[in-house]
Amino acid sequence: MLKKIVLLLSIYFFISCADNTNLGNCIQTLPLNLVTDLNNPEMINAQTPGGFALLSGGSKGIVLLNINGNNFVAFDRKCPNENCNSPMTYDKSRYVLKCVCDYSEYGIYAGIGGAPQSDGFQCPAIEYRVTKNGSTIRISNF
């Protein structure tokens, strides 16, 4: 009997601690199919690990980040806050996108997925899929 009570209490606490945040109101990926070459002059900074390039495309522009020479991540510079019309700025020293309207920040290094780094914000930055074939980079929605 005691085991059943402990089990039920454990399940209750587990369910009550779950994050029930509804992210359905967040901006989802936008239609995109962009192809560029790392040998283009605008991409010179993105050729080395840790380097990046700011590209036109998407909603407010795209930041492309070279993780390790073979893996890249790309994020739209559109602020997840629907009321902001300015593109986010990229802080290369901290690997974050900053929204100039509400000062929210979004981590864009590999594995972070654009997650908000500021308290009180739920929606992530818009991430795009990046594939590399030789020196060709394709950025597209998932």
How is this structure best described in words?
The chain has 142 residues and is an alpha+beta fold. It has a single domain (22-140), classed as 3-layer Sandwich (Rieske Iron-sulfur Protein), CATH 2.102.10. It is 11% helix and 28% strand. It contains one helix and nine strands; from the N terminus they run αβββββββββ. It has one helix at residues 2-17; strands spanning 33-37, 52-55, 62-66, 72-76, 89-91, 96-98, 105-107, 127-133, 136-140. The strands form two sheets. Strands 1-9-8-4-3-2 form a six-stranded antiparallel β-sheet, with no helix packed on it. The chain has a three-stranded antiparallel β-sheet with strand order 5-6-7, with no helix packed on it. The longest helix is centred in the first third of the chain and has 16 residues, at 2-17. It is globular and about 40 Å long. Mean pLDDT is 86; it is low at 4-20.
